[in-house]
Write a structure and sequence with these properties.
The protein is of the alpha+beta class and about 300 residues long. It has 8 helices and 13 strands. A hairpin with a 4-residue loop joins strand 2 and strand 3. The longest helix has 18 residues. Pfam families: APH.
Length: about 300
């Protein structure tokens, strides 16, 4: 390959021939994507984007989950290359999906369009549930990354469903008994297996292309977890779309359509109500008592 010149344009056909330093240079010079916000994704070219994965996160958790999801028919961008950076960070270069996020579309989306998209997501969620494991956490690292667990001592990597359940139950009945009332009525029973969960199905992470096909992006929190954790990742759309919290007919209709969307995609909320109640308590207590060391835990 010819000597690299910093003023040469990026060529998609040379992606596999560029050195890591060259790819990193081109990514650094590329503009960030803009939807309803400025994203952390760089538009490397018309067909490629690059996402930065900071150390100490394991980039293989994301790429392996994406590959598993693609293998069962979920519309996921194809990973084209992974670049290692000197600081321990990584860049994931992947297929660029042209379209609009559901966050952009939601104010103007009609009822029947909402239903059609929800049925697509339902098929994806069902397909992901066919990818099972006797372990918990990231597909590669086994580490648990979830907004519902805030303590510095998380579940041990690759915890079995039983060990992960014990970890959650510890926060319900054994965490700071002098300060926290035991909640034995919420104790969970471990599932036979965990399923592949995206865990962040926020409207910004779902893209509708020009052909009406739904794509799921940003698999950074994905891994093997109880099935109810997929539903939890779809709650609270007002955080992503503040206009839904307003007292207006448009906001009310937007909330109604999102509730219908979740119902079709993940089933009745009552099916996940106990899991949600447990996660709410675990989040509150692990956030308040971050230094606690629950059973089957390790400091990440």
């Amino acid at each position: 390959m010819e000597l690299f010149k910093s003023d040469t344009e990026f060529s998609e056909t040379l992606l596999d021939k560029y050195s890591d330093e060259q790819v990193a240079y081109y990514v650094d010079q590329s503009p960030t994507l803009t939807t309803t916000r400025t994203e952390s994704i760089r538009a490397l070219s018309d067909h490629l984007v690059a996402k930065s994965v900071p150390w100490p996160e394991d980039h293989c958790d994301e790429t392996d989950a994406m590959n598993k999801a693609r293998s069962v028919g979920v519309n996921v961008p194809a990973v084209r290359r992974v670049v290692s950076l000197p600081e321990g960070d990584h860049l994931i270069v992947m297929e660029r999906i042209h379209g609009k996020t559901l966050e952009q579309l939601w104010p103007s989306l009609g009822l029947w369009a909402t239903i059609r998209i929800a049925w697509q997501l339902r098929s994806f969620v069902s397909a992901l549930r066919t990818v099972t494991s006797q372990k918990t956490g990231g597909v590669h690292s086994g580490q648990v990354r979830s907004e519902w667990i805030q303590g510095i001592n998380g579940p041990v990597p690759y915890a079995s469903p039983s060990l992960f359940c014990d970890y959650l139950n510890w926060w319900l009945v054994k965490a700071r008994p002098s300060n926290c009332a035991p909640l034995p009525q919420l104790l969970l029973r471990p599932p036979r297996e965990h399923v592949l969960v995206h865990q962040d199905l926020a409207p910004r992470n779902m893209i509708l292309d020009s052909s009406g096909r739904l794509w799921l992006v940003d698999w950074g929190r994905s891994g093997f977890y109880p099935a109810f954790m997929e539903y939890l990742g779809m709650e609270g759309p007002e955080r992503a779309m503040p206009w839904l919290a307003a007292r207006s007919l448009a906001s009310w209709w937007g909330r109604c359509r999102w509730s219908l969307f979740c119902l079709i995609a993940c089933g009745y909320s009552r099916l996940h109500s106990k899991g949600r109640a447990v996660c709410v308590v675990v989040r509150q207590r692990s956030l308040r008592y971050k230094l606690e060391k629950p059973v089957h835990s390790v400091r990440y």
